[in-house]
Amino acid sequence: CHYAYDQFLHACASVISGARKKCPSHCISSLVQLNLTRSGPALEECDCATDPVCRSTKLAIEPCLPRTRTTMGCTEARIQCQMDMACSTAMRAYLFHCRKLFGGQRCSDSCRKIIANMRSLPKAQRLDTCVCDGPERNICEFIKLNMNTLCSASADAPAGSGFSDSEGDTEEDYMDQEDYQYPESSSCS
Question: 70-80: per-residue pLDDT in tens?
């Protein structure tokens, strides 16, 4: 239990200190491991009474705790979207037109239009409000971060990379292997 508790303190330090409001996946994993120990659940359910450190810690890690929530997980939201014709079509358009968003490069005007269209579809709205979960959680969080950063720029500020959105995506955009320099092989002596 002591090892699991130390792991929890280390993994959740940024949340406990207030530096982060969202819970990183390694913090959640450490909480799960802590709860698998004999005394772990008691730590989560204990009453802090008048201990300010205990209260602030419990308040800080509250977003990390497993819960029955009304917010849908993104895995379920995607499955429901795929079963709806309009949502499925919009999602395919999103995957095509927002490719550069996934790599953190830019959010084109066509991508913004697709996102606006998806936000008008009830089943697709769930993809916007869902909580990243499952094996694709890290990828999901990265894409949501890129959407918030690159696609939500104010109208006054230049959005994206500065490249023209009329510039089409080409195969060369994804084939830059020759730009990568491989290290010289050297022998260790």
Answer: 578 898 899 99
Distance (Å, whole) CA 68 – CA 2:
28
Containing H/E element for 111?
helix 109-118
Nearest to 117 by CA among 99, 98, 91: 91
Tell me the one-letter amino acid at 43: L
CA 111 to CA 127: how far, in whole Å? 15
For 23, the token pair is 């819970």
State how far the Cα of 127 lies from the Cα of 143, in Å rounded to an integer. 12
pTM of the predicted model, to two decimals? 0.47
Question: Rounded distance, CA 180 to CA 15, Å?
Answer: 37
Phi, then psi, of 120 in degrees rounded to 5: -90, -10
- Do the Cβ atoms of 115 and 151 come closer than 8 Å? yes
Token pair of 77, please?
Answer: 């939201």
